[in-house]
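Supplementary notes for students who missed Thursday's class. We covered one full example, reproduced here. Read the sequence, then the structure, then the short commentary at the end.
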Amino acid sequence: MNRIPEGMDKEELLKEVWKSCTFDEIIDAGFEMNKCGASDLINAASEFEDPNKEYDEYDIEDIVKKCSLDDICNTLQNEYDLKNIIDEFGLDDVLSSIDKGEMLEYLKDTYTLESYIDEVKEEYYFDMYNEIKSDWDWETKEILEGVLPDSGDDWREFLCDHYIKCSYYDNENFNKGLQNILDKISKSSYA
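Structure (token representation):
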């Protein structure tokens, strides 16, 4: 159907048409012969839009509404780093929208998660140790206060009954036993 008169190539024919006809006549002929339609004109005209045109937020909203989410995300990622996109949404908002199970599955077997678990365990063990030690120290102090003697007579009776093993009035054995205790203490690593 593309018959070009003999001796003329396509470019020469087009030059002749543009010399002989107006733009409106060419477009009208295209419509009459079903060679173009309104959408063809819109598409052709869109190629000549002003590249410096500034869009307001309503124009952008209209454009975005006409696009698929996939196209929007691809365009954003072609233009911006993913980190910047996430920062714009807000990291807390992004993280709160992710299923916690999926997040844990993603972190499974990573150094980050293992390190975090170790840190939590260490903190837990440290807290438990301090709690038990505090209870133990308090209970030991309370027990010792209840068991250890208050007066000199009570001390003598306590030492005679539990360490020296002599009668309360046996000064000689009591002094030897007390000296033995002092000798042992003087040989400790704290002396």
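Commentary. The two ends are 117 Å apart (CA to CA). The mean pLDDT is 86. If anything here is unclear, bring it to office hours.
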